[in-house]
Amino acid sequence: MKKKWTIIFIIILIPIGLYTKLYTGIKSSWVNNSLGGILYVIFWSLFFSIIFQKAKPWKIATIVFIITTILEIMQLWHPIFLEIIRDSFIGRALLGTSFSWLDIVHYLFGLVLSFGLIKMLRKLES
């Protein structure tokens, strides 16, 4: 399987990402919000790197960053359909509940890590 390591990384990221939303220890606010945001960008970048195998890593990571930033800005908007989605744990984990400019900085960090990870995995898997 050509994308074995990328799939393994994705599978590992799922429970770690979900755990960041449940973590209650030291720096829990940062882990719940900021670390989760970094992992969110990495997860989706890896996911889309499998689908768009010919796309350049920087394009994948940048597009995921832009979409994630749009989702962050959408947290300022509270229409009923979004509130219904946000009522569930998965909805809150995927869409978030409150806007923070600082989250965008963490998404940018996720972009940089994603870019490097996709490049590394593609080299490893070629």
Report on the architecture of this protein.
There is one protein chain. The protein has 126 residues and is mostly helical. It has one domain. It has helices spanning 4-22, 28-51, 57-74, 80-86, 89-95, 101-125. It is globular and about 45 Å long. The protein starts with a helix and ends with a helix.
**Whole-angstrom Rg:** 15 Å
Number of strands: 0
Specify the overall morphology. globular
Structural class: mainly alpha
Helix and strand string, N-terminal first? Answer: HHHHHH
Low-confidence stretches: none
Q: Per DSSP, what share of the residues sits in E-state strands of 2 or more residues?
A: under 5%
Could you name the key traits of this structure?
126 residues; mainly alpha; 6 helices
How does the SSE layout of this entry go?
Blueprint: H1 4-22, H2 28-51, H3 57-74, H4 80-86, H5 89-95, H6 101-125
Helix pairs in contact: 1-2, 2-3, 2-6, 3-6
Question: What is the compact description of this entry?
Answer:
By secondary structure, the protein is an all-alpha fold. It has helices spanning 4-22, 28-51, 57-74, 80-86, 89-95, 101-125.
